[in-house]
Every structure is written in C-alpha cells, then in structure tokens.
Automatic annotation (TrEMBL):
The keyword Zinc applies. The lineage of its organism: Eukaryota, Metazoa, Chordata, Craniata, Vertebrata. GO terms for biological process: adenosine catabolic process; hypoxanthine salvage; inosine biosynthetic process; negative regulation of adenosine receptor signaling pathway; T cell activation. InterPro entries: A_deaminase_dom, Ado/ade_deaminase, Metal_Hydrolase. Keywords: Hydrolase, Metal-binding, Zinc. It holds the Pfam family A_deaminase. This is adenosine deaminase. It is an enzyme of class 3 (hydrolase). The gene is LOC101351984. Its cofactor is Zn(2+). GO terms for cellular component: cytosol; external side of plasma membrane. GO terms for molecular function: adenosine deaminase activity; metal ion binding. It comes from Trichechus manatus latirostris.
Amino acid sequence: MYQTPAFNKPKVELHVHLDGAIKPETILYYGKKRGIPLPADTVEELQNIIGMDKPLALTEFLAKFDYYMPAIAGCREAIKRIAYEFVQMKAKEGVVYVEVRYSPHLLANSKVKPIAWNQPEPGDILPTDWSPEVVELCKKYRHNVVAIDLAGDETIEGSSLFEGHLKAYKEAVRSGVHRTVHAGEVGSAEDVRQAVDRLKTERVGHGYHTLEDEALYKRLLQENMHFEVCPWSSYLTGAWKPETEHAVIR
C-alpha cells in the first residue's frame, strides 16, 4: 500500500528564530525603503552573503545578522510583515505547529540599552539587562507566549548565570512562565547542568554536550527533559560534528 513520505506529512517545529527566517526580498525592500545600506542589491547576492552551507564558528554565524537586521529592527511595519511571512512559509512547508522565538529588544532596537543595531531613534533608556523585562512581557501576554528563552553567548563562561538572568528565571518559576535555555550547544555539559539546577529550565535548546557527562545524561533522561535539537544549524556552527559523535539524545 502506498505511504506518504515522512517529509510530506504534517510537521512540528519547536526551535526556530524569527530573525533568522526573514525572506531576502523583504530585507532588500526595507533596506531601500528606509535608506539603510545593505551589502547586496539582489536576492541572489544577499543570500550568498547572509546564507551558509559550510560550517563556521558560532560567532561567525551570528555575525551574519549584522548585515541585515538594521533594515528590519525598529520598524513596526517590517516586524509585522516578517511575522506574517513566517507563518506563510511554515504553512507551505506543512508545519501544523511551530514555536518561534525572538528578542523584543533586538527587534525594537530603540529606547533600549544597548541599541544593538544602532538605530538613530531617541527615547527613554530602559535598563541594560533585558531578561526581567522579557519575563514581565511573558506575564502580560501569557495567553499568547509559550515561554521565556535564554540564548546567551556560550563562548562567555558563566554568561547564562548573570544576575539579571537568575532574577528573571526565578520570577518565571514563581509566576508559572514556562522556561527554555540554550545550553550545551558550543558550551559544556556543565552549562546544561547549571541551566537545569539554577535556572530551573523545563527545556534545553540544543544540549549536545550533555553527552560528555554520562551521569547528567542519564539523570535528564530519567527526568524526561525535553531537548530542542536542530542538527543542521548546529552542524553549521560547528557545535555538532556527525563524524565524531557516537551517540544521540533519545
């Protein structure tokens, strides 16, 4: 009997970043409309610059956002459009449920400190640490927001445990806001342990390096910890090397 191939069946996607899923056409449109220089004038040229199909370091991967985010951030019209187009793209891919994440501060890029993309818009400056504010937004829109997520720079030791992050996750636990933490992608298994023990995360983004600590792996397996795994992106950032890994998270 004929069976539909797995990739044609309805799909669920639990780990996707909105600012990493913007159509090049939209970037070019708002760059031109807002007078913001871009490194290319055509879709093909821009895709070659901001896209990648060979592994780079995580920092090199993240640097690609610097090319195009100034054309989007700080523009309400652009943000609404990329969100709408994202839903369209997922529908065409057959995705029936998706959890997309974004940083409201990075997309606003005004009246916040630091201003990541250097938009020249004046306004009242909010506190440098954004995490407590994100929790308050989650509480305000708890009927629309799935969870708070921490996606810090794992190349900075202990960055997930900065005071503002600890404060935010403590409030998230107290107020019943669901919690995810990126950990163990390029960092160590200890980063995963800290995310679970100190930040009280319910999910781990990536978490490949958990495999380096057998006791931790067995513990989280027993606790039914949920790992949001994206092998392709992590292969491109060098966080996961299929030729050397000998186990997978089940």
